[in-house]
């Protein structure tokens, strides 16, 4: 557009479109207590459910006596597996193709497992009744270690006994779930054999938990008169829940309405299907009343969706001057009692095969063995797209270990091996096609901003001062460079229980020129109502303030696969842009008719179509919308609506460069974060303010995981971290001031060039914090120590290195 009308910039700003730090429209509600969460749903006659849970990690259930519970005033029903069996609902499919008990059927496999479901007049009666249900258990030997599990005679999953084939191929042992292999092992071993230098390391990425502010819950209401089931719940994927509920219950899908109201944080915890959802549905069908189930904090930590629990061993080959020639990775994955991992079906270990990271590694191999133990099921992507945080932690630790082995600077080692800008699209040895990237630019910007050389000099001086006895504090410089893989995904290789992972947007322009758009995703705090409107504003020339965004109601929203794995921007965001373009195409024809010129003689200009070469002759989108409903236009249907289902051709590959400067008190083990710099590249930025908020949140969760957050078990399978007294959730007290920065490398295949960003800070943050701790001790001979680096473990590291002598 060369004929710029003078007010163009002003009109453009008025749209509050792409790139605008528009204030979050949802926050007026949230900050005034006007949010509407599952626990706010209150229906007439609503009953409350609560679980009897197993105190044992592995035991036979000999008997369940409900009499005393049923005798309590206000108790309506007590459900056990026996009651669910006739409906075939005592077991349910998991997202990973395994099946999981809804209520204990013969035995329990982890502490906190659901044994019976009590339904009562109110929450308090239900809790009292839970205490009155008498369950007789017979303890069985407990296995909490996956390596021990693979050697044990104890059969954890008796229902699978004798099955040598699982949903992901052959099973090697009765406690083995699957082996997943990617890459070329023979070629990789050859490279390792011939290499000038090989660094080997084993590391444990501990079990942790997303722990959102709001726990999981649901309200089921079965209307027996019209046969309709309405289900409110904390669902990150409401449409998938509707389909699964229909398949399980036999209720026709059009008779099920699933509603995800406001969600108080998801972080992957709310992707899976939990026994509580199923039990609230069954209880509503049985009692004819609405039934609410909301878990408490301890139940959330003990029984829903853990994350990580990966034992990883790496071998990395390089030349003497630091060029990486090959990578071998093996993982033993502890999945707990059932394989309820939330990954696309064809990826039993998620996208762990992104473990070659940001480096040009010619040959690589990844092998993952999934194993059953007496721990809670899950394996969700806690702020990371399907095991990407494990992969990035692995490679970013291997790089540090290789740097030690080569006696080289770790920043330089990364620079030598980065995939170069001109190599994109880049085909990785483990099967991915990285869409775009410019790693060197980002790295140089990051190192320059923090004065990397100055930091290393200061660190060396500190080591000398420490040795002279002048200080008891060491300094660590944590580095990480990550490549994320988000936006699952092409339908050709990504599905969940057979449903292809596309996403959708439906837009309806009203006669007065305002609009409503509905999407298949669901915000859990990300700010979709703000940002999706911005994408559309730029596409259709209507101010974001005049576009309402709706998500989460399956009766109104088009089918979509939901929000997790940072897929909303790459997939639903693309669908929004495409739906907007369909609106614009129709608007162009209407404008041409109104202006009495040929379709090709008008062009889009911010908020209007104008005659080419005569910008004073135009019709605004408002005029066009009005005409679409009120004027008979030959050859054009009335109305202005569009829908787009978007199947992305590839994932998007956001990346970033992080640096953490930390001081560690050797005598107390307390780390103090002096500086944290985070450069993120998520392609085209929709809302810089929201991006910054996402980065702050993700970094804080990364700090948690790296420095203390853990779900740990004792030998008997007792959860030792089942309350917020023991499970570390950082507060403003522990969180440093974050410096954010960015570069912009648009995705070449996304309609607006945007990549996801919500998970990036977590994926890049965990290795950065961990590397900072470990780097502080490098001068004293530390090679690797496992997370979480809580004060005790840091003190122990210092002690092991003889620094307390
Ligand atoms: N370029 C760009 C990108 C992006 N963005 C923005 O940002 C956000 C985010 O995005 P994404 O990345 O796409 O993502 P999504 O899908 O939306 O979401 C999801 C994510 O998100 C994150 N973040 C958050 N936030 C909040 N507040 N909350 C929550 O919960 C959460 N979670 C987390 C997680 S964990 Mo997973 O589930 O684990 O898988 S995954 C995840 C949004 O709003 C958007 O729009 C912008 O602006 N631009
Ligand atoms: Cu993940």
TrEMBL record:
Species of the source: Parasedimentitalea huanghaiensis
The enzyme's E.C. designation: 1.2.5.3
Key words of the record: Copper, Metal-binding, Molybdenum, Oxidoreductase
InterPro entries for the chain: Ald_Oxase/Xan_DH_a/b (IPR000674), Ald_Oxase/Xan_DH_a/b_sf (IPR036856), Ald_Oxase/xanthine_DH-like (IPR016208), AldOxase/xan_DH_MoCoBD1 (IPR008274), AldOxase/xan_DH_MoCoBD2 (IPR046867), AldOxase/xan_DH_Mopterin-bd_sf (IPR037165), CO_Mo_DH_lsu (IPR012780)
Database matches in SUPFAM superfamilies: CO dehydrogenase molybdoprotein N-domain-like (SSF54665), Molybdenum cofactor-binding domain (SSF56003)
Secretion signal span: none
Subunit: Dimer of heterotrimers. Each heterotrimer consists of a large, a medium and a small subunit.
Cofactor entry: Cu(+); Mo-molybdopterin cytosine dinucleotide
Reactions catalysed according to its record: CO + a quinone + H2O = a quinol + CO2
GO molecular function, one term: copper ion binding
Lineage start: Bacteria, Pseudomonadati, Pseudomonadota, Alphaproteobacteria, Rhodobacterales
Gene3D superfamilies recorded: Aldehyde oxidase/xanthine dehydrogenase, a/b hammerhead, Aldehyde oxidase/xanthine dehydrogenase, molybdopterin binding domain
Annotated protein name in UniProt: Carbon monoxide dehydrogenase large chain
Origin: domain of life: Bacteria
Domain Aldehyde oxidase/xanthine dehydrogenase a/b hammerhead residues, every copy: 32-141
């Amino acid at each position: 557009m060369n004929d710029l009308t003078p007010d163009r910039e002003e009109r453009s700003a008025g749209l509050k479109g792409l790139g605008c730090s528009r204030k979050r429209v949802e926050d007026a509600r949230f900050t005034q207590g006007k949010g509407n969460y599952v626990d706010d749903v209150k229906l007439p006659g609503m009953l409350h459910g609560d679980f009897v849970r197993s105190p044992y990690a592995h035991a036979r259930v000999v008997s369940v006596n409900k009499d005393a519970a049923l005798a309590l005033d206000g108790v309506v029903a007590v459900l056990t597996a026996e009651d669910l069996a006739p409906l075939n609902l005592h077991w349910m499919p998991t997202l990973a193709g395994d099946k999981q008990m809804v209520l204990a059927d013969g035995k329990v496999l982890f502490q906190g497992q659901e044994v019976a479901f009590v339904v009562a007049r109110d929450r308090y009666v239900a809790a009292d009744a839970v205490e009155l249900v008498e369950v007789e258990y017979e303890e069985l030997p407990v296995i909490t270690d996956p390596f021990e599990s693979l050697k044990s005679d104890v059969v954890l999953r008796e229902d699978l006994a004798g099955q040598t084939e699982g949903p992901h191929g052959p099973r090697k042992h009765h406690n083995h779930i699957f082996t997943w292999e990617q890459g070329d092992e023979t070629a990789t071993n050859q490279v390792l054999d011939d290499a000038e230098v090989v660094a080997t390391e084993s590391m444990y990425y501990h079990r942790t938990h997303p722990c959102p502010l709001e726990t999981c819950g649901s309200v089921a209401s079965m209307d027996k008169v019209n046969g309709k089931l309405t289900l409110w719940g904390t669902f990150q994927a409401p449409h998938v829940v509707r389909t699964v509920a229909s398949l399980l219950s036999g209720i026709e899908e059009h008779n099920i309405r699933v509603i995800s109201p406001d969600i108080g944080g998801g972080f992957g915890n709310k992707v899976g299907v939990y026994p509580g959802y199923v039990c609230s549905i069954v209880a509503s069908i049985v009692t004819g009343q609405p039934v609410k189930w909301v878990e408490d904090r301890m139940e959330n930590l003990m029984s829903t969706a853990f994350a990580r629990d990966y034992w990883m061993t790496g071998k990395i080959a390089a030349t003497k001057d630091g060029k990486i020639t090959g990578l071998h990775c093996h993982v033993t994955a502890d999945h707990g009692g059932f394989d309820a991992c939330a990954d696309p079906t064809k990826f039993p270990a998620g996208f762990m095969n992104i473990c070659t990271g940001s480096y040009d590694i010619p040959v690589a191999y990844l092998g993952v063995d999934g194993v059953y133990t007496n721990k809670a099921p899950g394996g969700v992507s806690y702020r990371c797209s399907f095991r990407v945080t494990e992969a990035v932690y692995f490679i970013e630790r291997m790089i540090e270990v290789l740097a030690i082995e080569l006696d080289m600077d770790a920043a330089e080692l990364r620079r030598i091996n980065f995939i170069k800008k001109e190599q994109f699209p880049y085909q990785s040895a483990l099967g991915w096609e990285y869409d775009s990237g410019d790693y060197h630019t980002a790295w140089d910007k990051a190192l320059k901003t923090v004065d990397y050389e100055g930091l290393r000099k200061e660190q060396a001086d500190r080591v000398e001062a420490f040795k002279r006895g002048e200080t008891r504090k060491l300094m660590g410089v944590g580095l990480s460079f990550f490549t994320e893989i988000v936006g699952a995904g092409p339908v050709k290789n990504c599905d969940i229980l057979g449903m292809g992972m596309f996403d959708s947007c439906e837009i309806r322009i009203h006669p007065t020129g305002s609009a409503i758009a509905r999407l298949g995703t669901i915000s859990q705090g990300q700010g979709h109502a703000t940002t999706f409107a911005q994408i559309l504003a730029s596409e259709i020339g209507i101010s974001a303030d005049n576009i309402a965004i709706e998500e989460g109601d399956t009766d109104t929203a088009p089918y979509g696969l939901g929000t997790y794995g940072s897929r909303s921007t790459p997939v639903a965001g693309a669908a929004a842009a495409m739906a907007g373009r369909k609106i614009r195409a129709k608007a162009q024809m209407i404008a041409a008719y109104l202006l009495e010129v040929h379709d090709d003689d008008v062009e889009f200009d911010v908020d209007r179509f104008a005659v080419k070469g005569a910008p004073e002759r135009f019709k605004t989108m408002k005029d066009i919308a009005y005409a679409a409903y009120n004027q008979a236009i030959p050859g054009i249907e009335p109305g202005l609506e569009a829908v787009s289902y978007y199947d992305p051709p590839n994932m998007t590959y956001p990346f970033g460069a992080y640096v953490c400067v930390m001081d560690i008190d050797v005598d107390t083990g307390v780390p103090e974060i002096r500086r944290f710099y985070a450069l993120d590249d998520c392609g085209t930025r929709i809302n810089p303010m929201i991006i910054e908020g996402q980065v702050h949140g993700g970094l804080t969760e990364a700090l948690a995981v790296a420095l203390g957050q853990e779900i740990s078990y004792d030998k008997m399978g007792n959860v030792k971290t089942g309350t917020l007294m023991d499970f570390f959730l950082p507060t403003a007290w522990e969180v440093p001031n974050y410096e954010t920065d960015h570069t912009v490398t648009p995705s070449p295949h996304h309609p607006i060039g945007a990549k996801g960003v919500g998970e990036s800070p977590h994926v890049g943050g965990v290795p950065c914090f961990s590397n900072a701790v470990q780097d502080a001790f490098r001068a004293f001979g530390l090679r690797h120590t496992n997370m979480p680096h809580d004060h005790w473990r840091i003190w122990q590291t210092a002690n092991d290195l003889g620094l307390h002598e």
